[in-house]
């Protein structure tokens, strides 16, 4: 959206002017809409401006020669990529001139006006419009768009850049609604609007999906008095979540024994998948547990036998038994005892 004015606006334009503005949308499929916000020109002296549907003054005039004073906005829509605006003034009295704005957006309503449409929102800005934009929207419209950003922590931002909707005090006829979430709820309600031709300088309305990674946009119109609709800009702050998956494998003792046997064999084997019932699985698990205990016991015994024994503290090693030398011959026999003692002593 942009704005342009006659030279000297809003004070006064100069005399003897011939000004042209060529607007180009860049694509034949993207028309241009121009709307005059205000003009003040002296018709009596030939001051006027004109809007053409094309790139030359020989193209069809959409407005005719406009002059005088008008504070009511008028809209003009091209059928192609070009629009030409001209302004002339003579040598006599000058007025304030004019102020005009223009926008160039193509219809990006998608399928949302025939059934609910889900739109994936990325970090790149995209735009949403009413059906037929920039021409008038259809009567009895019931449009519904769900904006969805990947990632549960992502936040969607929307900016209502421009709107021209049938206006009434309570927005009962034509209106746009915005919700934070994918459904209509008073707790997620953000906006209901039916503003008529909001000026470019009025600013934009900005909202975000603070409680969800989705937003709902709806548009409804009645059976009469259709305007041009709205332009809505949307984008998202994407939050990427990384998930780590851990896989745990459980093997029984019998499975371990089979794997050891298979690894030592040079011939290949074909593994067959066998489905077993829950009781068989329980029995196999019990047998496997018992086999595991037996294997552990055998391994522990073998380990103890293979280790060298240590001498207990305080015990000496016993040397092998050897033959002692033969005993020497006995001593010679004792001499005869002294003469026997007399039985009695006789004193002389």
TrEMBL record:
Pfam families assigned to the protein according to its UniProt record, in alphabetical order: CUB
Where is the region Disordered?
Answer: 318-348
Superkingdom of the source species: Eukaryota
Keyword annotations from UniProtKB, A to Z: Disulfide bond, Membrane, Repeat, Transmembrane, Transmembrane helix
> Per the record, where are the segments of Pro residues compositional bias?
327-340
Q: Sorted alphabetically, which SUPFAM superfamilies does this protein's record hold?
A: Spermadhesin, CUB domain
Question: CUB domain location, by residue?
Answer: 1-105, 113-237
So where does this one cross the membrane?
278-302
Q: What is this protein called?
A: CUB domain-containing protein
């Amino acid at each position: 959206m942009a704005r342009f004015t006659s030279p000297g606006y809003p004070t006064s334009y100069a005399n003897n002017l011939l000004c042209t503005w060529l607007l180009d949308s860049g694509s034949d499929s993207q028309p241009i809409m121009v709307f005059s916000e205000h003009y003040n020109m002296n018709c009596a002296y030939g001051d006027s401006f004109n809007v053409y549907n094309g790139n030359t003054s020989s193209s069809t005039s959409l407005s005719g020669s406009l002059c005088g004073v008008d504070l009511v906005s008028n809209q003009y829509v091209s059928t192609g990529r070009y629009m030409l605006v001209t302004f002339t003034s003579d040598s006599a009295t000058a007025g304030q001139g004019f102020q005009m704005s223009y926008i160039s957006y193509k219809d990006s309503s998608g399928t949302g006006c025939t059934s609910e449409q889900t739109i994936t929102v990325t970090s790149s800005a995209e735009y949403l419009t009413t059906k037929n934009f920039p021409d008038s929207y259809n009567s009895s419209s019931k449009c519904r768009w769900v904006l969805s950003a990947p990632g549960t922590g992502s936040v969607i931002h929307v900016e209502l850049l421009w709107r021209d909707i049938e206006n009434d005090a309570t927005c009962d006829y034509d209106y746009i609604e915005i919700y934070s979430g994918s459904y209509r709820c008073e707790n997620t309600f953000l906006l209901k609007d039916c503003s008529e031709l909001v000026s470019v300088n009025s600013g934009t309305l900005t909202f975000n999906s603070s409680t969800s990674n989705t937003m709902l946009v709806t548009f409804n119109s009645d059976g009469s008095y259709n305007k041009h609709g709205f332009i809505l800009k949307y984008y998202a702050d994407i939050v990427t979540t990384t998930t780590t998956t851990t896989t745990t494998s459980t093997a029984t003792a019998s499975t371990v024994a089979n794997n050891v046997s298979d690894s030592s064999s040079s011939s290949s084997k074909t593994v067959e998948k066998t489905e077993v019932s829950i009781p068989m699985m329980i029995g196999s698990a019990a047998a496997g547990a018992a086999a595991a205990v037996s294997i552990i016991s055998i391994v522990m015994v073998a380990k103890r036998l293979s280790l060298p024994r240590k001498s207990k503290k305080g015990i000496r090693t016993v040397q092998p038994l050897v033959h002692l030398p033969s005993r020497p011959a006995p001593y010679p026999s004792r001499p005869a005892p002294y003469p026997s003692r007399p039985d009695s002593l006789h004193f002389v």
